[in-house]
Write a structure and sequence with these properties.
The chain has helices at 6-20, 36-47, 74-78, 125-135, 148-159, 221-232, 238-253, 267-270, 289-292, 297-305, and strands at residues 2-4, 28-31, 51-52, 63-70, 84-89, 100-105, 110-112, 173-175, 187-197, 203-213, 217-219, 235-236, 257-266, 281-288. By secondary structure, the protein is α/β, with parallel strands linked by helices. The chain has three domains: 2-114, Rossmann fold; 124-159, GTP Cyclohydrolase I, Chain A, domain 1 (Orthogonal Bundle), CATH 1.10.286.10; 165-305, GTP Cyclohydrolase I, domain 2. The strands form four sheets. The protein has a five-stranded parallel β-sheet with strand order 3-2-4-5-6. A five-stranded mixed β-sheet has the order 12-9-10-13-14, with helices on both faces. It is elongated, with a radius of gyration of 27 Å.
Amino acid sequence: MLYYNTEMFQRDVEILAQKVGGDRGYKAVYGVPRGGVPVALKLAQITGLPLIDALPSEVDKFILVVDDIMDSGRTRMKYRDYNFACLHVKPHTPCRTGIVYYVAVVDEWISYWWEGAIDQVPITIEDNIVRVLELIGENPRRLGLLETPSRVAKMYGEFFCGYHPDQMPKITTFENGVDGLHYSEMLRDEGYFFSFCEHHMLPFFGQYYYGYIPDAKVIGASKIGRVVDYYAGRLQVAERLVNDIVSCIDAACQPLGQVLVMNARHLCKEMRGLRKWNSPFEAIAVRGYFAENRNGCKDEFMARIK
């Protein structure tokens, strides 16, 4: 995270003023509400241009619209008929139409001093949930929502364990053929899982079916489900999730073959868009003997889970 202080601000607005200045003929500066206002105020002071608090009813090409950052590009599109100036641009910003003046392309999260960051304290999940509530038209200060931001932050901590290496389960393995253990046949596990779609941040959930044929090592039975939960604890797509899981187990015990079937309901498909209720989507990963269907092992596995 970049903590953007007043010294950085002064320096960058002076650079921006140089880019905007000259014989371009601007007659006023307008700051986009909230983030753009401090920038516009300082830019107006440096350039001598008047600061206006509202745009005219008709587009005036000689009014410069100012913001702090171009991120998603939505603000730029809202003011697409005007020339635009900002301090920072994100590299993924899709919209740079028209004339856009900016100081730097910045890939990291920026905490601007005017956003209330005190003593370089990072913006929290709670802060951003408050913003989301405001943007959808809610009042985050009403009684029923007062504790919602902290509840959501706590919930995210539970859901998204897969981003924290310290929560990666320790995968216990045992030597195959030792202490009476020797499995030449298939071993199976199944259970439920919950994850979040990375496209809409809506849940997808269902049942997994896992099978493997061990070689030198067998894995502790409870560890399979823990690996599933760890990799499901990220923003995911089903196709990546199945391969994350089998790759992790492959690194731990190098089985002769693996198969994983994950059958899930995706709320991004059921609640929005297509709106096909209770229409599971299935993702399958196969490795080694199962990919070859050696001795019909894949056929046997698939028959067992029907």
